[in-house]
Amino acid sequence: MINNRGSFRLRKHIDVVWSVPEEKIEGAGKIFNISLSGINFETDKLFQPDHGMTVCLKSAQISALPSKGKLVWFKRVGENRSHYQCGIRFLKDMDPDPQWVQWMDENILKLADTGDNKILTRYLTSEEQS
Contact 32/75 with Cβ under 8 angstroms? Predict the structure, then answer.
């Protein structure tokens, strides 16, 4: 999906480890969608969020994942509102790693190459409605 960030969002459920070094907190989470410019992920716990705080990221499944971003938005979710869904924008002062761009390109191409056009059509339709 092309959005106001100008980047296609790839829906992928990927494990991520996150931390906020300044606050000495860390945890695990799940990425819901990802683009060249940022991610939407869910934390495993609550913390003191602040717009613009730096969040560090790691994923065993995406070795080239940009390692730092800024918290753009957050909302409490889950049973008993026990964790956050967060929007992170990767730091702009870091040039994109060519391996990161390649990973995104390859995964977008996999989606485009799907043999079942109904899946692709349903995916693109749901993205447009988001």
Answer: no
Range of the domain at 115: 10-129
pLDDT at 3 over 50: no
In a domain, 84, yes or no: yes
Write the pLDDT tens digit of every residue in 107-123. 888 876 665 555 555 55
Residue 2 lies in a domain: no
> 18 exposed, middle or buried (CB, 10 Å; 0-12, 13-18, 19+)?
buried
User: For residue 69, is it within any domain?
Assistant: yes
Q: ∠ at Cα 70 (66, 75), nearest 5°?
A: 115
Beta bridge partners of 50: none
The Cα angle at residue 126 between residues 120 and 129, in degrees rounded to 5: 140
Q: Residues 87, 40: contact at Cβ < 8 Å?
A: yes
Q: Report the CATH number at residue 119.
A: 2.40.10.220
Number of domains in the chain: 1
